[in-house]
Amino acid sequence: MSPPRRERRKADPALSDPERLYVITGAPDGERAALDLVTMVVAQAEPSPMVQPEQAAILRLCKAPLSVAEISAYLSLPFSVVTSLLTELLATELVESRAPVVRASLPDRSLLEAVMHGLQKL
Amino acid sequence: MDFRSSDTITGPRSEDVLPSTATAAVKVVVVGGFGVGKTTMVGSVSEIRPLTTEETMTQAGVGVDDNVGVETKTATTVAMDFGRISLSEELILYLFGTPGQERFWFLWNGLFEGALGAVVLIDTRRLQVSFDVIGRLEERGVPFVVAVNTFPDAPHHPVEALRAALDLSDEVPMIDCDARLRTSSRDVLMTLMRYLHRLAVPLA
């Protein structure tokens, strides 16, 4: 069996345009939602002409739950840019987010057992 | 210039679409030097082809340790590969591979926050990177296990010698693995989970 190969995604020409990145990220000191790489995002609405094309793409992608990291990968946009796009979508309730299950100061044993149970099936 | 039409965005393949019940995500980080097999390990256990997310280093010259002469205000983009394992209909594990060199530590802030733990993947031919990584994880209080990726031409050191070289305490699990094999990489993750489980049991 040959090991899986990483698929390198083609750079989007639009994204090498720094002005465009500035436009979609807005002011550099704007407030951003507290999102983790593994915060799960689900669309609550169909894309409308009212949203930016990047945000419409997110709404399309997130018909089923998708992590912020996956959104970033599929759109070939940096994590920080995706966070900024999602902040607006969250504020207007076009998407819903589900925070990750984090390690508390004392890890939850039932969570770890659920992880082990899932890994056993691999 | 316009963003390409969102109709042309390639999303997940139909078999990679998560059920609507997938509400809980956890993450584990695989950290190690270049070429140590992080992406191989992520890919061998992932149910999706490994994806890449990027982050841009915006602070001028943060942690640039061996780039003398390089213009430090140039933004550096660093790619992180990650994979996914659906553990149940609700619970999803994400596995991130991140480079261990000090100049990439700026990536660690969001990455380790809330992570269950880490796998330090090491190559016995290049232990130096692992020294820094292990020290850094200890400082941050991130629980980790050490997995020795077995390269055919790497010198085989007894576990005890490696443990001493890495100055690891006895409690930290250390195992050999072949990152190319799903079962072997799975066992590394199981070792981490069992270790975390032990840590969660209050000492009598």
TrEMBL record, chain A:
InterPro entries: DUF742
Organism: Streptomyces silvae
PANTHER family the UniProt entry points to: DUF742 DOMAIN-CONTAINING PROTEIN (PTHR36221:SF1)
UniProt-recorded name of the protein: DUF742 domain-containing protein
TrEMBL record, chain B:
Classification via InterPro entries: Gliding_Motility_GTPase, Gpn, P-loop_NTPase
UniProtKB keywords: GTP-binding, Hydrolase, Nucleotide-binding
GO molecular function: GTP binding; hydrolase activity
Gene3D superfamilies: P-loop containing nucleotide triphosphate hydrolases
Pfam families associated with the record: ATP_bind_1
Entries under CDD domains matching the protein: Ras_like_GTPase (cd00882)
SUPFAM superfamilies: P-loop containing nucleoside triphosphate hydrolases
Recorded family membership: Belongs to the GPN-loop GTPase family.
Entry protein name: ATP/GTP-binding protein
Taxonomic source organism: Streptomyces sp. gb1(2016)
